[in-house]
Amino acid sequence: MAMVVTEPCFGCKYTDCVVVCPCDCFHEGKSILFIDPDPCIDCEACIPECPVAAIFHEDDVPEKWHDYIELNREMAPLCPQITEKKTPLAS
Protein backbone atom coordinates (compact mmCIF):
# COMPACT_ATOMS: atom_id res chain seq x y z
CA MET A 1 0.00 0.00 0.00
CA ALA A 2 1.07 3.59 -0.53
CA MET A 3 -0.04 7.17 -0.67
CA VAL A 4 -1.56 8.33 -3.98
CA VAL A 5 -1.69 11.80 -5.57
CA THR A 6 -5.07 12.41 -7.21
CA GLU A 7 -7.00 14.87 -9.42
CA PRO A 8 -6.91 17.98 -7.18
CA CYS A 9 -3.12 18.21 -7.71
CA PHE A 10 -3.52 18.48 -11.47
CA GLY A 11 -2.69 21.98 -12.62
CA CYS A 12 -1.53 23.30 -9.27
CA LYS A 13 1.31 21.00 -8.21
CA TYR A 14 1.99 22.32 -4.73
CA THR A 15 5.15 20.79 -3.29
CA ASP A 16 4.58 21.28 0.44
CA CYS A 17 4.15 17.50 0.66
CA VAL A 18 7.52 16.79 -0.95
CA VAL A 19 9.65 18.27 1.82
CA VAL A 20 8.06 16.15 4.58
CA CYS A 21 8.46 12.81 2.79
CA PRO A 22 11.09 10.77 4.66
CA CYS A 23 11.56 8.40 1.70
CA ASP A 24 11.78 10.87 -1.20
CA CYS A 25 8.85 9.15 -2.94
CA PHE A 26 7.65 12.12 -4.97
CA HIS A 27 8.22 12.54 -8.68
CA GLU A 28 7.38 15.59 -10.77
CA GLY A 29 5.24 15.31 -13.86
CA LYS A 30 4.45 18.23 -16.14
CA SER A 31 1.14 19.12 -14.43
CA ILE A 32 0.94 16.85 -11.40
CA LEU A 33 3.10 15.12 -8.80
CA PHE A 34 3.26 11.34 -8.46
CA ILE A 35 4.21 9.09 -5.54
CA ASP A 36 6.35 6.02 -6.18
CA PRO A 37 4.56 3.32 -4.18
CA ASP A 38 7.62 1.08 -3.79
CA PRO A 39 9.66 3.24 -1.39
CA CYS A 40 6.54 4.74 0.27
CA ILE A 41 6.26 3.64 3.92
CA ASP A 42 2.66 4.81 4.42
CA CYS A 43 3.69 7.36 7.05
CA GLU A 44 0.95 9.78 5.87
CA ALA A 45 3.17 12.81 6.60
CA CYS A 46 2.30 14.23 3.18
CA ILE A 47 -1.49 14.12 3.60
CA PRO A 48 -1.93 17.11 5.95
CA GLU A 49 0.66 19.13 4.01
CA CYS A 50 -1.32 19.09 0.76
CA PRO A 51 -3.28 22.37 0.55
CA VAL A 52 -5.70 20.94 -2.03
CA ALA A 53 -6.37 17.57 -0.30
CA ALA A 54 -5.06 15.58 -3.27
CA ILE A 55 -3.21 12.83 -1.37
CA PHE A 56 -4.89 9.72 -0.02
CA HIS A 57 -3.85 6.35 1.29
CA GLU A 58 -4.37 3.85 -1.51
CA ASP A 59 -7.23 2.23 0.42
CA ASP A 60 -8.97 5.59 0.85
CA VAL A 61 -8.80 7.00 -2.68
CA PRO A 62 -12.32 8.11 -3.66
CA GLU A 63 -13.90 5.86 -6.29
CA LYS A 64 -13.95 8.63 -8.90
CA TRP A 65 -10.13 8.84 -8.69
CA HIS A 66 -9.22 5.13 -8.54
CA ASP A 67 -7.40 5.43 -11.88
CA TYR A 68 -4.80 7.57 -10.10
CA ILE A 69 -3.60 4.56 -8.11
CA GLU A 70 -2.24 2.93 -11.25
CA LEU A 71 -1.27 6.26 -12.79
CA ASN A 72 1.06 7.01 -9.84
CA ARG A 73 2.55 3.52 -10.07
CA GLU A 74 3.17 3.88 -13.82
CA MET A 75 4.31 7.50 -14.00
CA ALA A 76 6.51 7.92 -10.91
CA PRO A 77 9.41 5.88 -12.34
CA LEU A 78 9.21 7.86 -15.60
CA CYS A 79 9.39 11.31 -13.99
CA PRO A 80 12.25 13.02 -12.16
CA GLN A 81 12.36 12.72 -8.40
CA ILE A 82 11.57 15.91 -6.49
CA THR A 83 12.80 16.57 -2.94
CA GLU A 84 12.64 20.36 -2.62
CA LYS A 85 9.77 22.81 -2.51
CA LYS A 86 9.06 24.70 -5.74
CA THR A 87 6.65 27.42 -6.79
CA PRO A 88 3.30 25.77 -7.59
CA LEU A 89 1.64 26.06 -10.97
CA ALA A 90 -1.44 27.54 -9.30
CA SER A 91 0.36 30.52 -7.79
**Main sheet makeup:** 2 strands, antiparallel
CATH fold node name: Alpha-Beta Plaits
CATH architecture level-2 label: 2-Layer Sandwich
Total individual domains? 1
Q: Strand order across the biggest sheet?
A: 1-4
Helical fraction: under 10%
Q: Tell me the structural class.
A: mainly beta
User: What's the tally of helices?
Assistant: 1
C-alpha geometry: globular
- Overall radius of gyration: 11 Å
User: Between the first and last Cα atoms, what is the distance in angstroms?
Assistant: 31 Å
Number of strands: 4
Question: Uncertain runs with pLDDT below 50, 5 residues or more?
Answer: none
What percentage of the residues does DSSP assign to strands (E)?
Answer: 5-15%
Q: What CATH first level would be assigned?
A: Alpha Beta
Mean pLDDT: 95
Give the SSE string: EEEEH
Give a quick summary of the entry:
By secondary structure, the chain is mainly beta.
Characterize the structure shown.
The structure is a single chain. This protein is mostly beta strands. The chain has one domain (3-78): Alpha-Beta Plaits. It is 10% helix and 13% strand. The chain contains one helix and four strands; from the N terminus they run ββββα. It has one helix spanning 67-75, and strands at residues 3-5, 26-28, 33-35, 55-57. The protein has a two-stranded antiparallel ribbon. The longest helix is centred in the C-terminal third of the chain and has 9 residues, at 67-75. It is globular, with a radius of gyration of 11 Å. The termini are far apart. The model has no long low-confidence stretch (mean pLDDT 95).
